[in-house]
Amino acid sequence: MRPMPLLLFLTLLAVNAGSILPGAAEVENRGQKVWAREGSSALLPCYLSPRKHGKGRKQLSERTSVLWKRHGASAPQDLHVVLEVEYSGLRKTALPMRPRVSVLDSALRNGNFSLCINPVRSDDAGLYEAQVFYNKEIRSCRVELGVVTVKLSPARPVVENEPLLLSCNSSHHARLMETCWFHNGHPVLTSGASCSMHGAFYIHRPTVSDSGSWHCQLRYADNEIVSATHNLQILGFDGPTNPVVYAAAGSAADLPCTLNHLPSAFGIHVVKAHWSRFAGGHLQNWSILQNQSNRSFPLHLPVVGLGDAGRYSCAVTVDNKMLRRDMTLAVITVTPGIQGPVSEGSHLLLTCSLTHPQGHEHFQWKRLSSASADKKLTVATSHNLKDSRVQTGPTLEIPQVSQKDVGIWECSVYGPEGRLGAVEYGLQITGAHVSSPPTIFSGQVTFGLMLTLIFLLMVCVLALGMQKRARLPASFPALERIVAVTLPKEMEENQKETNQQTEC
Ligand SMILES: *[C@@H]1O[C@H](CO)[C@@H](O)[C@H](O)[C@H]1NC(C)=O
Ligand SMILES: *[C@@H]1O[C@H](CO)[C@@H](O)[C@H](O)[C@H]1NC(C)=O
Ligand SMILES: *[C@@H]1O[C@H](CO)[C@@H](O)[C@H](O)[C@H]1NC(C)=O
């Protein structure tokens, strides 16, 4: 069935309810009991139509009027007017309940004279009577309203760790036998039993997990069972109770302090957050200013040092209540076994440690990047990474530091919930560098040196030649040949050029 016809069908059913349902007439004078929770709305049902059948709906509205009255609590014969709708449509409402009571505008036409009370107060409990006047006929409905109250003490806002008393009470007059409590549908046990003789339930240190629906069930001596549900919201912090924040020495850290709800949702408009830390015999303080549309008050530490590790406390003040969350900042450091520069070939131990280990952490070492620009080398080592370059345990051992170990090494801290933090160590080596200087550079040096040598040699040869020219003119080409032979092959051309220049 599509929504439209369904809606139409329900509307027709509602319109005809008074005239076609035989049960509607039986309601008269028998008395019905309705339960409502204090603060919610109550509907006191009354569906009536004139007793004489065969009359059209037109006549129903013609001279119909309704008068809702309430029987006095102490003297039931005293009747107080609650609300009246005259046949002209004019409404009169008695002062005490004026803004809270209503009947449908269409009541006189469709026969639904139900009285709506919103919100219900505990003193609304009692017997109500509707009198419906047709031309000459009077018909009536009697409804008893019972009120159940769920009380929180202290009242809103309910904050975590502050003792809370939930109590349940109803206007029923019989003797209360027991009260049973349910949280999110599950029976709640107090000293082994889920029900108690009295109507209260005490939570010594409420936590955010106590939020949710609380349902009380009151059983009375006359076997009447009355129940009510309260949706409890507890203002507290997000995340675990005693968190540990892991930060690498030298990095920035943000210590979290986040409320689980916006304070403004609890009607709180002034929120102050304050961080403190007791270290080295004195108290450090930070004030965090945030507007009320914020629920996060983190403490930012730009550069974490070993001295920053320890216990921190975030206190958020809402109204006059203070919520506190303690946490630990654990700093992760790497200590190399060798002080100062690391030289090639040495035996290196890198130890990863935590200032505040909780006992469940484990460590893993991994090579992040290689300093070498040679792509083939990086690929080769990262291929080996899985087997030999990922090491578990706090200590990384490099038996013989070599060129390929240069780069960034990362120590990660893992807990049962996953990766908690990481610290990086940049490994650089010194000494024993000469064995493999970059090739282009060495080539240039060799070439320059050679040229200088050749030039010096030429100068000598020329000087020698000038001296001996007169005595031994034929020996010059021979000398030239000898020089050419001693030079490396690649230099021959340059050498010839040099010779030509010298000759010119
Ligand atoms: C009768 O009127 C009340 C409002 O006074 C309304 O909430 C209720 O749903 C109506 N009943 C039917 C059957 O339409
Ligand atoms: C709850 O109990 C107190 C007495 O313990 C009573 O005065 C009060 O009216 C009760 N509340 C309701 C809604 O009946
Ligand atoms: C309040 O804080 C929120 C969240 O940080 C921000 O978006 C908003 O602009 C702030 N409003 C004012 C008036 O500062």
Task: Compose a concise summary of this entry.
By secondary structure, this protein is α+β, with helices and mostly antiparallel strands. It folds into 4 domains: 8-147, Immunoglobulin-like (Sandwich); 154-235, Immunoglobulin-like (Sandwich), CATH 2.60.40.10; 244-327, Immunoglobulins (Immunoglobulin-like, Sandwich); 337-427, Sandwich (Immunoglobulin-like).
Describe this structure in words.
With 504 residues, the protein is α+β, with helices and mostly antiparallel strands. It has four domains: 8-147, Immunoglobulin-like, CATH 2.60.40.10; 154-235, Sandwich (Immunoglobulin-like); 244-327, Immunoglobulin-like (Sandwich); 337-427, Immunoglobulins (Immunoglobulin-like, Sandwich), CATH 2.60.40.10. Helices cover 20% and strands 39% of the residues. The strands form eight sheets. Strands 1, 3, 4, 5, 8, 9, 11 and 15 form an eight-stranded mixed beta sheet that branches. The longest helix is centred in the C-terminal third of the chain and has 30 residues, at 439-468. The radius of gyration is 46 Å and the shape is elongated. The protein starts with a helix and ends with a helix. The model is unreliable at 1-27, 372-387, 433-446 and 472-504 (pLDDT under 50). One 2-acetamido-2-deoxy-beta-D-glucopyranose binds next to strand 9 and strand 11. Residues 14, 17, 43, 103-104, 112, 114, 116 line the site of one 2-acetamido-2-deoxy-beta-D-glucopyranose.
